[in-house]
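May I ask for an example protein's residues together with how it folds?

___
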Amino acid sequence: MKQLFTFFLAVCIAINALAQSPNAAAAGMSASRLDRIDQLINDYVAKDWLNGGVVIVYRNNQLAYYKASGYNDAEKKTAMQKDQIFRIASQTKAITSVAVMMLYEEGKFLLDDAVSKYIPEFAHPKVIASFNEADSSYTSIPAQREVTIRDLLTHTSGIGYAQIGSKQMNAIYAKAGVVGGIGVGKILLG
């Protein structure tokens, strides 16, 4: 569901951007300073650090900058288009973090609030005390404290990913049939 929402949000932003012409002044930004983005992207393309990209800058609900640079296909020298579709993979973390910080700025929560205050299933967390490699069985003990919003934002919550996490968690997830992070919420230590 999160991926669908992220995709929908990206599509809405792109459609809105396609319908507007960039106007840095209306957004309260300097067009000459925004043009530095062109220089940066073009430099990255020239150094083969990046094939190309599309940059959209909004400020105060105004489109300030919207350009495609570089190549969609570097080998064929096919130019990048503004409406190019990208797979953003783990960049959902960045998008989610921005949304969380916007809520923080509005005073909706404190960074050191326990996540369980908002998601009760996070109450009374446990951590692995022992692990048996032979059959992936384990014992757990209560964690010293609850996971906070700050922990989630700084990736220090101790919650592992399937397939890319620790050897122990990979085995536990595999035994439970959890693949690549799908269904991670179904697994609770205990």
Residues 126 and 189 are 6 Å apart (CA to CA). The chain has six helices and five strands.
